[in-house]
Amino acid sequence: MDSLQAPVLYHLSSAQSTRVLWALEELALSHGQKFELKSYKRQRGRAPTELQKVFPLGKSPILEIPGVELYRPLNFIDNGDETKRTVVTESRLILQFLSDKYSKGEWVPATEEDRQRDSFFQEFANSTVSVIVDRITYFQIIPVGSPWIVRPLMRAIFHPIEAIFSKDIDGPLTLMERALSDETPWFSGATLGLADFNMIWPLDGASQKKLIDEKKYPKVVGWLKRVRERPAYQNARKKGGSYDLVRYEM
């Protein structure tokens, strides 16, 4: 949309904002869309407090479009800033906003079947796969963040629990394996779409944690390979800095 200024992405290292950065890089390559990237590095695994100046929760990703007010579901929040702007938070909403306002329909599936599939896998990525991977993450990093004197004890307690919950990923991976084919190589269907942008975060995390058995789930591994071979994804990784989804820079 020509009337909108270039979006600004507030990006945090080793964070979900990488998938938004990937989407922006896709738009840059396909439509010449410009955007501004403001990067922040985790501090002992946490987001820096400077992000709270942009949005009170101080989390990333945050997308800002200067000069216009198009989207204000949180207009009850007052940051003490009267600058006219649009601020969108939450990864799935940001990706949908980019699709609606900037992609020129590129990420809208061509068939009704693919539209339903795309909608399902967007929700599945965030409400099922991410929840499982995040739960495993907690059991992995709690011992790492514990005082050194109790760290061996914490590992002894949490690692068996982690092993139990790690098995929960098999069901979703089996479903995803069945969904991918030569005709539907993307979670959005025949072409890359919003479901794929949403899915990369939990599957990158699962991959780094070595939760994906290549022999059992070759199509899922193939999807990851296709994503990682895309120039836009490679650009996002280069610009995004650290991407540690095991220890989160703790």
Strand composition percent: 5-15%
Q: Percent of residues in helical segments?
A: 40-55%
Alpha-carbon Rg, integer:
19 Å
Strand tally is 4
**Can you tell me the residue ranges where pLDDT is under 50 for at least 5 consecutive residues?**
none
**Structural class by sheet pairing and helices:** alpha+beta
> How would you state the average pLDDT, rounded?
91
Summarize the entry for a quick read:
This protein is of the alpha+beta class and about 250 residues long. It has helices at about 15-30, 90-100, 110-145, 150-165, 170-180, 195-210, 220-230, 230-240, and strands at about 10, 35-40, 60-65, 85-90.
Report what the structure shows:
- By secondary structure, this protein is α+β, with helices and mostly antiparallel strands.
- The protein has 2 domains: 8-103, Glutaredoxin (3-Layer(aba) Sandwich); 112-230, Glutathione S-transferase Yfyf (Class Pi), Chain A, domain 2, CATH 1.20.1050.10.
- The chain is 49% helix and 8% strand.
- It has helices at residues 17-31, 91-101, 112-144, 151-166, 170-179, 194-208, 218-229, 231-240, and strands spanning 8-12, 36-40, 62-66, 85-89.
- Strands 2-1-3-4 form a 4-stranded mixed beta sheet, with helices on one face.
- Helix 1 packs parallel to helix 2 (91-101).
- The model has no long low-confidence stretch (mean pLDDT 91).
